[in-house]
Structure formats: C-alpha cells, structure tokens
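Chapter summary example.
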Amino acid sequence: MDRETVTAITRLVLKKLEEMQAIEKNSDTSPTVSTQSSQMVKIWDHLTEKPRVITHGAVHKQDDQLSFNSSISGQDELLKEPETRAGVDQPLYPEALSSIRSSTPARIGIGRAGPRPKTEAWLRFRLDHAAAVDAVHGEVIPDLLEKHALFTVQTLVKNKDEYIRRPDLGRKLSEEAKATIRERCMFQPQVQVIVSDGLSAEAILQNFEDTYLSLLQSLQQLGLKTGTPFYIERGRVAVMDDVGELLQPEVVVLLIGERPGLVSAESLSAYLCYRPRKGTVEADRMVISNIHRGGIPPVEAGAYLGNVVQKILKYKASGVSLVKKEK
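The structure predicted for these 327 residues follows.
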C-alpha cells in the first residue's frame, strides 16, 4: 500500500473519530442501543477463541468482567500479553503436538492463514523481535552499578553502531580504561570479576544482581580472594585477555549479556578463563549460559560458578584443558 493511500485512510479514520466525539459531547443522555451497535467493531480474540466487542473509549469482553474506559484517569488496565497457542485446527496427533509444545519454547504448530502466519503468531514474533532489538540498543542503569560499587571503563568502541559493526574494537580496552584499572584495582588477585552489557543490557538489568551477589558469597565461603570488580561498557568476551594482561589474576569471571534471540532477550552468560592473556584461544574459555528466569536461575548460577572457579584453580586449567586434566 502506497503512502498516499495510507494517508487518505488515516484521515478518514480521524474524521470519523472526531464525528463520534462530537456526537457524544452534544448528547445529554446515554446512547441508544441502535447507536451503540453502529459504533461497535467485532474482532476475533485469538487468546480466548471468543468474539469480543470494542467500542470507542471502551472494551467489553464477553463472558469476562474485564472493562476499560479510556476517559477515566488512573483506571486503565493493561491488556494480557499475547501467548502463542496451537494454531493447527485439527491435528492428527493432538496429544503428541501438545507434548512437543510443552517441552520447548520454539514456535511449533502455530498454523497458517493461507500463505501467512496467523495474526496472533505474527504479533508474538514481532513482539519478541522488538524486545531483542531493545536489548541490543539498551543501556545499563548507572544506579545499579553504583549500588555494587562498580566503576565503569570503556573499550575502543565509540558508540553502539560501531560496537555492532566492529566486534574487534569491543575486545580491546581504551588507554584511559587501562590507566583507570591499574590505578583502582588489586594486582594479582585469585579471582577477578568483571561485568559487561555485551549484546544485551537487559540481561544485566534483570539477572546481574542476583548472580553477582550469589557468586561473591560462594567465593567467600570457599575462601577465595577476589579483586576489585568493575564494569566494561560495550565489551566482548575476549576483553578478558586485556584484563588478564593488566591485573594478572589466576581466574577471570566475566558476566556479560548474551546475543538476544526470539525466546529470551535477557539471557546472561558467565565466561571463565584461567590466566587469560593475549593469544588465549577460545578453547581455553568456558561458559555457563542461559542465566535468566526461564533458564538457569541467577542465584543458582552464581553459587555454581564458585565451584567452577575452585575447580579451575585446583587443576590450573580451563576449557578443553580442564576437561583433559579431569580425566
């Protein structure tokens, strides 16, 4: 549909709304049944499979005592978040389909309306995609970092667009950051904890606090000495190599936002490495991923990370090397 057509339709809709508002203002009594019927638009509610009626300024849901009047200040109610139900009308094996759908968040059996996805499934997809985009372009609230005494340093990345286009710049600390870390951080700690937004600031906002506090408690109970934690804005996983060169810790633990997907946009990862330095290969790193409310609970993940750190220190290895030594 071209822009002129969209503009014309929009003008007609606005004109109709203005006429309806004028009628309501000029009327001293409530509208008659015939007037209400002419203003109603019936749509299909894919969540309850029942028709509902929407009028100007109000929502009435049949067999459900939910009502909404936009003219009453402070009385607005949020509509229920869309849920993707099974869209196959007559599945050959309904029990098997139900079992599969309950075991995975993947979009299975959503059905189609002709050549296109059904409206509900399409809206759910658009909502999840929007959440993923927001997670990438979001920012971590400074108050959260200040609450846990985390100072902030920068990588070589100048802005979010450059961060997305140039992953290599997110792996290197700026010279100013290096100077700040040398000045403010403990040298050669057993465990150095660092935090970065990575590709999901929402992951830090939702899961960092519980994971971090649980991790610190676990390390303390194990008798391990931690360095000065800090936050790296727009960092990549390999930025831990620069931190290793500067502070020379035994183990680095990096809490970083994962690349968001259509299932979760707030998933946190914890990367661990024994003595990371320049030239460290990816096989020497290990990761605990999917830390969020629908995956590994943050508190549980933090406690488990302490045990992993203890094992790394015991064998003086991480990643593939740790697996070989454990055998």
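To summarize the output: The radius of gyration is 27 Å.
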